[in-house]
Amino acid sequence: EVQLVESGGNLIQPGGSLRLSCAASGFSVSNNYMSWVRQAPGRGLEWVSIIYTDDGRYYADSVKGRFTISRDNSRNTVYLQMNSLRAEDTAVYYCARSYCKSNIYYNAFDMWGQGTMVTVSS
Amino acid sequence: EIVLTQSPATLSLSPGERATLSCRASQRISSYLAWYQQKPGQAPRLLIYDASNRATGIPARFSGSGSGTDFTLTISSLEPEDFAVYYCQHRNSWPLTFGGGTKVEIK
């Protein structure tokens, strides 16, 4: 079955660190563009970060310098290392795959995980 | 950063009616716009990519149009399962951004 499964969400104090994992099955993360997208409670969607097949990475300004996206091809897993967490980082974090057709990547997300909740609070 | 403004915020319609949702970009984004549907407690689902291309498995009642700064998602005849929140998202430049969403609710 083709799917993404996130894990690692938790209640964490402001200033703390957390690492989220996104395990893929049915396809290889190494051959795909993979992103993290978050959604604060009752709010809209916010793109967070992306990792390209050539290891290129981009970040939203709101997380730049604090979050790091990475990939372990042997585990077929994408990670999001989150440092210096703030209350405004509280959200469900989704892992998502960019749609690819004929080797063209569209950066529209055709596969999503179920999400993992991160709560930043003292 | 490109700002996407969706309107209306809420659309109250009955099953069988036509829904027209708008997404306006703060600068030109060619056709680099996607539409998603999200139901409560679920992840978003890709409906349309590059303004007018239906994603795999999306029914033909969903259609997208537009280019430049003004885009439209049309649901030709609402089915009960179509009542949800819809988001647009651009891929023109960094950062990728989403619109604030339009909720399509049952009238």
Description:
The complex is a heterodimer of chains A (122) and B (107). The mean pLDDT of chain A is 97. Chain A is mainly β and 122 residues long. The N and C termini of chain A lie far apart (39 Å). Chain A has no helices and eleven strands. In chain A, 0% of the residues lie in helices and 56% in strands. Chain B has 107 residues and is mostly beta strands. At the A-B interface, strand 5 and strand 10 of A face strand 4 and strand 5 of B.
Task: Show the helix and strand layout.
The complex is a heterodimer of chains A (122) and B (107).
Chain A: E1 3-7, E2 11-12, E3 18-25, E4 34-39, E5 45-51, E6 57-59, E7 67-72, E8 77-82, E9 91-101, E10 104-112, E11 116-120
Parallel strand pairs in A: 2-11
Antiparallel strand pairs in A: 1-3, 3-8, 4-5, 4-9, 5-6, 7-8, 9-10, 9-11
Chain B: E1 4-7, E2 10-13, E3 19-25, E4 33-38, E5 45-49, E6 53-54, E7 62-67, E8 70-75, E9 85-90, E10 102-106
Parallel strand pairs in B: 2-10
Antiparallel strand pairs in B: 1-3, 3-8, 4-5, 4-9, 5-6, 7-8, 9-10
Briefly say what this structure is.
Helix content of chain A is 0%, strand content 56%. By secondary structure, chain A is mainly beta. In chain A, the strands form 2 sheets. In chain A, strands 2, 4, 5, 6, 9, 10 and 11 form a 7-stranded mixed β-sheet that branches. Chain A has a 4-stranded antiparallel β-sheet with strand order 1-3-8-7, with no helix packed on it.
Label the structural class of chain B: mainly beta
Number of strands of chain A: 11
User: Quick check: average pLDDT of chain A?
Assistant: 97
Helix content of chain B: under 10%
Q: How is the main sheet of chain B built? A: 6 strands, mixed
Tally of individual helices of chain B: 0
Please give the oligomerization state of what you see: heterodimer
Q: Estimate the helix proportion of chain A, in percent.
A: under 10%
Identify the overall geometry of chain A: globular
Q: Tell me the span between the first and last alpha carbons of chain B.
A: 35 Å
Order of helices and strands of chain A: EEEEEEEEEEE
Query: Which residues of chain B form runs of ≥5 with pLDDT under 50?
Result: none
Mean model confidence by pLDDT of chain B = 97
Strand order of the largest sheet of chain B: 2-10-9-4-5-6
